[in-house]
Amino acid sequence: MSGHHPLQPYPFSTALFALILLFLLTLTGCSTSTVIDEYRTTNTKLDLNKGEQVVIMGRRHAGEYETEPDFINCISNRIATSGKLSVIPEQEFLDSFYPWFEPRVAPLKLKRMSRMLEEPIIAERIKALGIRYMVWVDGNTETTDKSGSFSCAIAPGGGGCFGFATWDKASIYEAIVWDLKQLDEKGRVKVETKGSSYLLAVGAPIPFIAQVQSDACKGIGNRLKGFFLHGGGSQQEPQKTTGHQGNTES
Description:
Layout: H1 11-29, E1 32-40, E2 53-58, E3 60-61, E4 65-66, H2 69-80, E5 87-88, H3 90-96, H4 110-116, H5 120-129, E6 131-155, E7 158-179, E8 184-208, H6 212-228, E9 243-249
Parallel strand pairs: 2-5, 2-6
Antiparallel strand pairs: 1-8, 1-9, 3-4, 6-7, 7-8
Helix pairs in contact: 2-6
């Protein structure tokens, strides 16, 4: 019949569907979950006298992997922002003690550290810098799964991308606190953060990135701060100062 045309999709409906999809992805795509396990040998805060410092060190396993320097800096900055803790930057410490803390010779155990402190030159530098506590952080962040695809094209009238991709990341780290004065271990904090990120491409690619490593830094940094400061841990993370503890966040 004349005057009738095949139905065409309404641009408004298409735009509305895209907006709803974007909204749902925003709610679900940027979330992370964190589990923290903490152990302390004492229920009182650790002694840190005037002039004494803490150093946060990342494990580097030559030929395997290294705990990311940016992550170590993140923890150090988070602890130091309180203004009540003096934290020596990792690179400054490594430069001062080269080559004793290079990957192949760095002490993996406290017993090895105690033997290193028998060397006068090392012991004197530790004392001069006021290093009381050494915190070793071991772990990394890696992509555990990914799927989907998208493609982009350029045409005379313009260009754009189309597709959908997702990937999961996991950050798993453990921090061990050594007291270099008493030569014993004061506690451990283990954090495991997981999250999913998405990339939606309908014209221009739009990423929704889960801040997995950042949340892991926040979790482990707050707990380490709590070793030295009353109320140092996050108010959203109830603490026990003795025994093992697990905590889940979303």
